[in-house]
Amino acid sequence: MTERVEGHGGELALAALRANGVREMFTLSGGHVFPLYDAAHKHGFPIYDVRHEQSAVFAAEAVAKLNRRPGLAVLTAGPGVTNGVSGLTSAFFNASPVLVLGGRAPQFRWGSGSLQEMDHLPLVAPVTKHAETVFSTDDIPRAVTAALTSALTPHRGPAFLDFPLEAVFSVGDAELPAPVAVAPVEPDPDEVARAGRLIAGAQRPVFIAGSDVYAGDAVAALREAAEALGVPVFTNGMGRGALPPEHPLAFAKARRVALKGADVVVVIGTPLDFRLSFGDFGDAAVVHIVDAPSQRAEHVQPAASPAGDLRLILSALAGQSGDRVDHTDWIAQLRTAEDAAKARDAEEMAADTDPIRPARVYGELRRVLAPDAITIGDGGDFVSYAGRYLEPAQPGTWLDPGPYGCLGTGMGYAMGARVSHPDRQICVLMGDGAAGFSLMDVESLVRQRLPVVIVVGNNGIWGLEKHPMRAMYGYDVAADLQPELRYDKVVEALGGAGETVAKAADLGPALARAFDAGVPYLVNVLTDPTDAYPRSSNLA
């Protein structure tokens, strides 16, 4: 039996949002969207507000990524929407089901120069799956449900709606559509079988599992396939932790050895982008498993590329009949390389040097982070070390900006993570450059009693730019920040707490105080500016 809803546009929108599992709103106050606030207030729907609209979208994205359900950001017209475009774009690259609802100048005066009058759709359409202006109050429940359907349908991604002033403030009456129900996409069985034969016959296969494995709730199926086929597993993005570090098929440190020696590389739920050498693995055959045909790589020709529900594909691979090559020697070879790399990392993470080496920061963090801690990376050079030295113990515990590489996610992600998991440790790993993008939103965390720990690697430079520029030109420009800047004092001024650490021996006690503080707490670690994360260029 269909349900009818009545009320102003905010009431109609909220009814559709709640019916589809949306549980909270992130926003920065604006008059164009007052009816959405009014509806939320009357119905006890949580509202979390921020100091910059990008943080609202990033918070909504963290909710979407961690919980595998829609996250909601509400932005006022004009600059409210444009300030959120970087967040929308990150969600697009990360396949995060975020819904942004925007205000819009009144349609009946369109073209007359109303406050913040702007057509948002040409800006947001390229970075959303669905973008629409809803001109009729009665049409709002239909539009919200359609936008959420698009956002949740693989390949997932953000959606955008805006409401002219008269549409959202007026009273309407409409049927509430049935909640979104996304049916699994059945893969082509012949393509799955082709992939299965390649893997089963490989002498040295490798799995690389990415964020869509978590987003598609395919973690158990990944383990099933890896164990059935005896294939070593590497991960990136939110795929990290899909196999616990102690699992015999879980690897993190031996990727270079694995990709150099592999004869079949199976990339699951992540694009063949700069993080994976653009899909060029030498003579190895590439199997690219994706959640939708649109995600098949076009710049390389995989030997097989099954597309569809990742659970169905991986379970089918696990259950495939026929002969399989024994990979015991291959796994042992990788384990030797893994153990050697771990020994080197352990030595680096224990380095007792002043200035502090970034590796030592992560050595100390490994001692205090709980297995279910949510770890958030927001930065370049400093966060690269996090990817190397931290090994998530559980899936769904790692957030980073993703392939778009947008700095400024930190405080928004922290807010979304804290709202999603009130009882877990939330730890933001932030470069001092990234701190300039969002640190003001510590005030939002303080005011709304959302404690997190922020660890700033403070080397006084833009590390990803300074060192390469000097190597290329013999000099650098626009790559310096204030050395030893007191970011902890900024957090204290905003109502939180913190301290600066200059000696490696003081790191452990400072982190212990941070996690016990119960308020946003920033540990400002003065790190060695000469210690640069080794990398080749990813710009090509």
Automatic annotation (TrEMBL):
CDD domains associated with the record: TPP_BZL_OCoD_HPCL, TPP_PYR_POX_like
GO biological process terms on file: isoleucine biosynthetic process; L-valine biosynthetic process
InterPro entries per the UniProt record, alphabetical: DHS-like_NAD/FAD-binding_dom, THDP-binding, Thiamin_PyroP_enz_cen_dom, Thiamin_PyroP_enz_TPP-bd_dom, TPP_enz, TPP_enzyme_TPP-bd
Residues in Thiamine pyrophosphate enzyme TPP-binding domain copies: 378-525
The Thiamine pyrophosphate enzyme central domain, residue ranges: 193-317
Domain Thiamine pyrophosphate enzyme N-terminal TPP-binding stretches: 9-121
GO molecular function per UniProt: acetolactate synthase activity; flavin adenine dinucleotide binding; magnesium ion binding; thiamine pyrophosphate binding
Keyword annotations of the record: Thiamine pyrophosphate
Name of the protein in its database record: Acetolactate synthase-1/2/3 large subunit
Organism encoding this protein: Micromonospora palomenae
